[in-house]
Specification:
The protein has about 80 residues and is an alpha+beta fold. It has 3 helices and 3 strands.
């Protein structure tokens, strides 16, 4: 599996935090990123298609619910 630089940045955050994160939490945790906040959904969908991440559940975000994501492999397995 080949991941882009931006996808790797998201994976690094997920690996470092170690708990499922929502899109908003992922943006908060990504201090050094090469991608724009508005494109995070595209990157997450790409990682889902590559089966690098999976949906872990839902969290309440103000009046709506958001998906949370977790890696399907460890840093070492990648």
């Amino acid at each position: 599996m080949e991941l882009t630089k931006s996808e790797m940045e998201i994976m690094e955050v997920l690996w470092d935090v170690g708990v499922p994160l929502s899109r908003a939490e992922l943006i908060e945790q990504s201090t050094e990123k090469s991608w724009k906040d508005s494109s995070v959904h595209i990157l997450l969908n790409g990682l889902l298609q590559k089966q690098a991440i999976q949906e872990a559940g839902f969290v309440k975000c103000s009046k709506t619910y958001g998906r949370t994501f977790t890696p399907t492999m460890t840093r070492e397995q990648y």
